[in-house]
Specification:
- This protein is an all-alpha fold.
- It has one domain (7-111).
- The chain is 74% helix and 0% strand.
- The chain has helices at residues 7-34, 37-41, 48-63, 68-88, 94-110.
């Protein structure tokens, strides 16, 4: 099935994917190098390396077109966990919720055939 994607839609999809990639890679590097004490506050210090590596792997899967379906599912799971952590710590869930919506919007713009009914 060959679905044509408009040039504008393709560009917007890639811009969203690029911004999300930058956000997730910064977040992972923050967990690893810049601000590891934040993970201690959330009582996840023992898991910070695994979480950061999972975040990097999921982001790379999301970025590349052949694997963006898997990356979308993994990032959705990751953001679901982030929403739960924010809820249990009494923090706002606005940021992880917006990022989760952007993950799916970016996926939809880049892979519209996934949502077509056969």
């Amino acid at each position: 099935m060959n679905t044509q994607i408009s040039k504008t839609r393709k560009i917007i999809g890639w811009v969203i994917a690029g911004l999300l990639t930058a956000l997730y890679l910064y977040s992972a590097s923050s967990k690893l190098f810049l601000n590891p004490e934040q993970m201690e506050q959330m009582k996840l210090a023992d898991w910070r390396i695994i979480i950061a590596l999972g975040e990097i792997g999921s982001t790379l899967l999301f970025l590349f077109p052949k694997t963006n379906r898997f990356g979308t599912l993994l990032l959705s799971s990751y953001m679901g966990g982030a929403i739960i952590i924010h809820m249990t710590d009494g923090m706002s869930i606005m940021m992880p919720s917006v990022v989760l919506v952007l993950v799916w919007v970016g996926f939809y713009l880049r892979t519209p055939e996934f949502f077509k009914m056969k």
